[in-house]
């Protein structure tokens, strides 16, 4: 049976873009050369965007942040408690990278500011960099390439190995570690991994019970862990001694995970055959800045070693990764600014409601961030009781709670009164009304 083209009507309910009731234009500060696609996405929403390729110091941020409602950063800009105190209008922070340790997450949450990141988008880029470093270290071709550029022909096979049949030890079997596991096995490598959680291995990878067991069995050790108190200097003299003589260390995770002076000593003594380092305890804030001024004496030691590959934190620096990160984080910020959704926030309760549609006039969305103490919902619901509450959802995370509610048939004269009454509740941190 054939249907006439006009026999079925499909109605597509378009989501309504919400705006603050005071209708103040939203201003965004985007730093550190974040993907232009993210900037374009923000401007398409009508946001005012100031875009810079450089990071900002704490003093610079304190001077400028007060006029912005959102900020996008990568890893070099630090959002400290002092910066947050100066950010009188700030609603949301976007970290266009995996990590969020450059942001004081607790202070941001206490100020009612959710923080979003992109934990998975550059996984493939980092994994491919590690594979290239494993091969480069094993074949010493970065040394041969440098010698050729200085006019020296030095063809040799001593100390050069195939990676096939060698053991790769992965510390941290998350999204990067697991992708790396698959790529390594495709090269014929044996894969071990250590993680604080019991995880299902991919392929023929095997989880070991301790870090020391992984270190003693691996020809290559690669780190893929976050910066936490327990991962600070997790590779120091004791751990380097446990590694096999002639093995290699790769760190594309966080700079403070490796004790650099201890690593230098292990390399100079010949216990380690080489290393590849992409992250450092302190890093310059912009391209072209001196490396030595940031890291002082031991950076010179690293640079003087011929069997060390040094790269300037480029693990996620591919066109594909930056495009995906730009799309993911900008989408999260837009959802929060336009609809109040906190799905994916790292420091905040994750709350969301179905979007208000164009067919629903006189609807108000209440976005209420408050201290997580008893009796708050009773106070808020008393304020909302004269209205038709169509949807309401609340959740908490630690000391912070977040409530979203959609209120129907709210007249224009009720809007400001509604906001004022909710803002005056005893636990209020931030109240936004979107229309």
Automatic annotation (TrEMBL):
PROSITE patterns: D_2_HYDROXYACID_DH_1, D_2_HYDROXYACID_DH_2. The keyword Protease does not apply. Pfam families: 2-Hacid_dh, 2-Hacid_dh_C. Residues 29-347 form the D-isomer specific 2-hydroxyacid dehydrogenase catalytic domain. It comes from the Eukaryota. Residues 133-315 form the D-isomer specific 2-hydroxyacid dehydrogenase NAD-binding domain. Pathway: Amino-acid biosynthesis. Keywords: Amino-acid biosynthesis, NAD, Oxidoreductase. SUPFAM superfamilies: ACT-like (SSF55021), Formate/glycerate dehydrogenase catalytic domain-like (SSF52283), NAD(P)-binding Rossmann-fold domains (SSF51735). Belongs to the D-isomer specific 2-hydroxyacid dehydrogenase family. This is Phosphoglycerate dehydrogenase. The lineage of its organism: Eukaryota, Fungi, Dikarya, Basidiomycota, Agaricomycotina.
